[in-house]
Amino acid sequence: MANNRTIEQPVRVKDSPRRLKTVAMRAYADQKKPAHDNARIAEYLPMVARIVQRVVTYLKPPLSFEDLVSAGTVGLVKAARNYDPAHQADFKTYAYIRIRGAVLDELRGWSFVPANHTRDIHNVFEASRKISEATGSQPSDEELADKLGITVEKLYKTLENARAQHFASIDDNANQNAPLANLLPATATPKPDEHVERAELVRKLAEAISQLEERKRQIIILYYQQNLTMKQIAGVFNITEPRVSQLHASALFNLATKLREWDDAG
Fold first, then answer.
1. Does some domain include residue 11?
2. Shortest CA distance to 116 belongs to which of 68, 171, 154?
3. One domain for residues 52 and 182
4. Where a domain ends, among 108, 135, 168?
5. Residues 184 and 256 in one domain
6. 204 to each of 171, 184, 186, 210, 213, how far by Cα in Å?
């Protein structure tokens, strides 16, 4: 989608069901669909809002909530139209992939991480690599900040930028900065060798998660397995939501670094 429009509304993660339905209807009002497609769209429309909410939880993109819901709804409409039960076993999974892909396509039209921040991210990766090579283990946040000569708060800002950059490209298999991309379900039946590669990547990711600091590991499990929000996780640990965001960003950086090390090692 074009990215030269003027954004007038701030990002919002909540809106009334009626308003969401209006936005969604507007996204596909002119398209002709069979009755069963309409039924599927109506049934899975709430999924669009849930996916968008998880995106804006920590990305805070320069787009309104309605912009992303509209993009996701287009993905849902295409999923309903193109779904073939003979090739896709489960519509819910297929729709999730198409919705999420449409939202990410919309996000890619916007720059989340300026060039100077990209350089900072690279420096953090390099500093982490050097410490790991020297000590045999990943550095703590404090050690990494000290190596870079910056405050821990500055480090967390950089890691949050890295998270935004990673999220926007996570399903782009050509991007070397997205080692988790291959964990996403494929829209077509994978080949036998792809099954093996995926199983190995899942095994490595599980090992990397097990090596995280206790609180970071719990946050990853609560966020991705239990589907808790940042706010809910903050309540579990009795800390602030921004602190959960910092630890979440640091955990993702640790995982990406570990997977990158294993990939470089062959």
1. no
2. 154
3. no
4. 108
5. yes
6. 18, 15, 19, 10, 17
